[in-house]
Design brief:
The chain has helices at about 5-15, 30-35, 60-65, 80-90, 105-115, 125-130, 135-160, 165-180, 240-260, 270-280, and strands spanning about 20-25, 45, 50-55, 70-75, 95-100, 120-125, 185, 190-195, 215-220, 220-225, 225-230, 230-235, 295, 300-305, 320, 325-330, 330-335, 340, 345-350. It is of the alpha+beta class.
């Protein structure tokens, strides 16, 4: 049985547990997760005994090569996805169908409900996303490859930095290098934030030159075979000040405490607290306002979440980011982020970009 068939079996078991007969999968990432299909603009109808992908003429070849073990329906260009779905659901004679509430629009859901008055349409949330929390060996290897591509790209960028380079230029070069090392592109638009800009957790690269201040924050990741990595480092490009040293070491120690707490059964909120309490005890509590981390996979922010309101345990196979930060308006910010795999007996840090303070010092 293929890994995609195994995933569909797990989904069917969850649907049965909830008393639902079938599911119309409309989120493109979830369609790929369950079928291996590499295209877009397609739905997946998961029935008790079989699975049907609903697509169009453009993807006939991809369907045959990507997912030969499932049935397919190629809708004519004049037929909407809703109408194609209605026909298949009617033909299947199923009493209930789960819909992805986070993906299907209200208009599409209403159109299906109107067209299928005898079918119980159940709006669900995150059913497949929860299954995606636990990565299999193939997924973990793809994330490892995404980490490697991102790290190699950063090594090139770091070694070639000049004072005249702008945030935008460096961000562009990061993506180019990721592709050079086998990535499909970046996981997200890279963040390159010089000095005060680093006080913005999601700063947009601009025309600020890296030599215009004493430090710069880099947040980047690679897309490798549709799986993603997410790394942050803050480097010193000018004078190393006592303030920067204090902030940096506070963030680093907070991150190390949180990583140490990661193991199967560890409560996510307590992992978050390990870092948050350290930062608060150092006097910077109000300057760390986001959650500690998130899951990564085919989407850059997915389940699980390392946050103060997540009172559930970590499980083997989860891959999470650990990214505490301190952001001081008008001065700048420091964030350090690694990707961490929860193993059977503890954890493995997948990223290996050096992060001691002495490693962060770069001469331009």
């Amino acid at each position: 049985m293929s890994r995609f068939a195994q995933r569909r079996r797990k989904l069917r078991a969850e649907l049965k547990r909830q008393g639902i007969t079938a599911m119309l999968v409309t989120d493109e990432l979830n369609v790929t997760y369950l079928s291996g299909f590499s295209g877009d603009s397609s739905y997946l109808l998961v029935l008790p005994k079989n699975t049907i992908i609903i697509s169009d003429f453009r993807y006939i070849s991809e369907i045959q090569s990507d997912c030969p073990d499932i049935d397919s329906v190629i809708r004519p260009s004049v037929e909407s996805m809703v109408e194609a779905s209605r026909k298949l659901i009617t033909k299947a004679k199923v009493p209930s169908v789960a819909l992805e509430g986070n993906s299907l629009s209200l208009g599409q859901a209403e159109a299906l409900a109107e067209a299928l008055p005898s079918v119980n349409l159940v709006t669900t949330s995150s059913v497949i996303e929860k299954l995606r929390e636990i990565k299999d060996k193939g997924e973990i290897q793809s994330i490892r490859n995404a980490v490697k591509a991102a790290q190699k790209a950063f090594e090139v960028i770091k070694a070639s930095l000049t004072a005249e380079q702008t945030e935008k230029e460096i961000a562009f070069n990061l993506e180019h290098q990721i592709r050079q090392f086998g990535g499909r592109g970046t996981s997200f638009d890279p963040i390159v934030a010089v000095g005060p800009q680093a006080a913005l957790p999601h700063a947009q690269p601009g025309e600020q030159r890296i030599g215009d201040d004493n430090f710069c924050l880099f947040d980047w990741g690679a897309d490798y075979d549709r799986y993603l990595s997410d790394i942050t480092r803050t480097i010193v490009t000018g004078k190393l000040t006592a303030k920067f040293e204090k902030v940096y070491n506070t963030v680093l120690q907070a991150q190390l405490k949180a990583i140490k707490a990661i193991k199967p059964g560890a409560i996510m909120s307590k992992v978050d607290a390990a870092a948050r309490n350290h930062i608060a005890n150092a006097g910077y509590g109000k300057y760390f306002g986001h959650s500690l981390g998130h899951g990564i996979g085919t989407f850059i922010h997915e389940f699980p979440r390392l946050a103060s309101n997540q009172h559930v345990p970590l499980e083997p196979g989860m891959v999470v980011t650990v990214e505490p930060g301190i952001y001081l308006p008008g001065w700048g910010g420091v964030r350090i982020e690694d990707d961490v795999l929860v193993t059977k007996d503890g954890h493995e840090v997948l990223t290996s970009v050096p992060k001691k303070l002495e490693d962060a010092i770069v001469e331009l």
